[in-house]
Amino acid sequence: MRFGINFFPTVSPEEKSGAQFYDECLELTRRADELGYNSVKTVEHYFFAYGGYSPDPVTFLTAAAMVTKDLRLVTGAVIPAFSHPCKLAGKLAMLDNISHGRLDVGFARAFLPDEFAAFQTSMEESRDRFNEGIEACRRLWSETDVVFKGKFHQFGPVTMLPRPYQKPHPPIWVAATFTAESFEWAGRNGYNLMIVPYVSTREKVAELLKLYRDNYAQSGKEPGTEQIQMSYHCYIAEDGEAAQREGKLYFDDYTNKLLVAVSAWSRHKTDQYKGYEHLVEQIKRNTYEDALRDTKVFVGTPAQVAEQIAMVREWYGEVEPSLQINFGNMPHEAAQRSLELFAAEVMPKYGTRVAATV
Amino acid sequence: MRFGINFFPTVSPEEKSGAQFYDECLELTRRADELGYNSVKTVEHYFFAYGGYSPDPVTFLTAAAMVTKDLRLVTGAVIPAFSHPCKLAGKLAMLDNISHGRLDVGFARAFLPDEFAAFQTSMEESRDRFNEGIEACRRLWSETDVVFKGKFHQFGPVTMLPRPYQKPHPPIWVAATFTAESFEWAGRNGYNLMIVPYVSTREKVAELLKLYRDNYAQSGKEPGTEQIQMSYHCYIAEDGEAAQREGKLYFDDYTNKLLVAVSAWSRHKTDQYKGYEHLVEQIKRNTYEDALRDTKVFVGTPAQVAEQIAMVREWYGEVEPSLQINFGNMPHEAAQRSLELFAAEVMPKYGTRVAATV
After folding, report:
1. CB distance from B264 to chain A under 8 Å?
2. What's the complex ipTM?
3. Please, what is the Cα angle at A224 between A222 and A226, to 5 degrees?
4. Which residues of A touch B158 (CB under 8 A)?
């Protein structure tokens, strides 16, 4: 079983400078590589404490590439709606070369109304922009003299440089949350999948994953070669009660910042984002206590977390947990502790290579 | 006197992979930092052997930040016409933080018709997009709750994250070539200047620099605090005749690749780029022999190059030569040799700190 770490910044400038935040994340990344984790992932968001320290995941992942040897570098995700495909495909190909082929490219639609407003892009078009952006990148990476005639972008013939390191192109992943159509589409196209399970019930997640896998099996790719990353808040300490108590502080901090970022949804409703008009209510209902009870977070002693992982594998099959290791404005030392304890005491139970010593 | 290195890729995938090219550039960058160079710079271009390996200078410079301690990281330049300002300001602020304040941001208009065509942006608007892009970045970096009402972009109130490391923002540079208006504008706004002198006569360059400095002195900034970087092809060997002979190979290779990229100018003419309709002819007229004779390149023994630098300083005053150290499809070892010889035998004559030994 593979495990990754996942930086979803939830800090404000008043709490921590960008320089300190990136220094800490890069230190965790360097150490995760030594400890045998499989991947590091980061997100694309703007303006809010929720995600705002990561307006460009490629920039952070390029720094991460330089302090690691084996770790896969995962955009989780890039947003085609906010960049021209020639720019996006080009910089991702640079990172793929700089890292000697360690890039995994996750794409997403984005869902914060205020971001679409700033980029003067309609949310109504976001699925079409997402589909078109993936298609444009895929073609720019794998073909030469590309003539592209999309709804939003028309260009060519052009040959993107540099050519990607991985052939025909870096693995493509898509981010999906609620919508059955997204899971079906990802599978049908043979793309890998990244999901955030904690906003849905276990039954709903299992159903969506089945839909994805069934479609993947018919995509022409070998069934079982699909990869699925699932994001989980992770907080571990030797003292399980302390872990649960402290975890709540950072989970609630994270949730409060998320609520600020999504507050515009209380004023929006669109067929293109079915159910999002209830997002604010849904997040408020999702308490830390519920998340703990329903194993939607990995919190506790190493032994407790190992059991939580076992349960997730039983429910969802072979997936890669992507651990949000420094959610909320958590002290760096707490994130370091979770990272070390997970590697030393949880990973060996799942056949992951034994943690390196330093 | 300060000296920098400057990567203007001029290689095709048939000649060298992206991975090899970046590995070599990062090795030169790491060594330049040890040797006491001041800066590393790279460009934004697409699709052609001329520049195409650098579709996103921020990505390369982020990798460069991770292998250096003191080197200034210079975008030479980013193109506001091809990115949304919220994306551009955000990722530059990330790099400023990751590098702990070593970022210098050069902006340019771009000048290749095929790039504008791919980005579906009119060249007629390029000056307005350039001005607006700089203004938007400057405000996003230095103000909070920015409400921006430009000709091309309207957004806000938004607060860009992360906040830049350098306050109020990273130093702003502008790229200028022929046009008097550009030099005047850069000075009047108190921006630093980056120029490519080899397409103009010495007298013309001196005149444009005077225009810039006169305007800078009236910008409200302290006269003499302006910074000017000038790009020069650089090729050094102990054997001066070999240097001149081999330098021609790589210069001609560079020029031939440049001619492919600018070929669209033989079919264009616009008041917004006065004189560019003659660009192809002008580049063809500019032979290597002329460039050598007129000290528009630094080529020869270390002693000869030291004299060339003296001349440039006499003509133009205090400027920072930005050395194109691996122009054309030059072998890596040749670039390494130029880098080492320049540091060991030229820099000490100009008061630059003595090269570190390894």
Report:
1. no
2. 0.96
3. 85
4. 46-47, 114, 118
Torsion angle defined by CA atoms of residues B297, B299, B305 and B310, in that order, rounded to the nearest 10 degrees: -20
- Tokens representing residue A55 in the block: 């307006």
Taking the C-alpha atoms of residue A154 and residue A158, their distance in angstroms, rounded to an integer, is 11
Q: Right CATH number for B4-350 from 3.40.50.2300, 3.40.190.10, 2.60.40.10, 3.20.20.30?
A: 3.20.20.30
Distance from the A303 Cα atom to the nearest Cα atom in chain B, whole angstroms? 36
Query: Which residues from chain B sit within 8 angstroms of residue A66, using beta carbons?
Result: 63, 66-67
pLDDT tens readout for residues B79-107: 999 999 999 999 999 999 999 999 999 99
Q: Say yes or no for a CB contact (<8 Å) between A55 and B155.
A: no
Sketch the domain layout of chain B as residue ranges.
Answer: 4-350
- Please tell me if residue A117 touches chain B, with a CB cutoff of 8 Å: yes
Q: Can you give the pLDDT at residue B352? A: 64
State the pTM of this model.
0.96
- The chain-wide mean pLDDT, for chain A, equals 94
Nearest to B55 by CA among A50, A343, A180, A160: A160
Cα of B160 vs its chain's centroid, Å: 26
* Any A CB within 8 A of B8 CB: no
Q: Residue B182 contacts by C-beta under 8 Å, 6 or more apart in sequence?
A: B174, B176
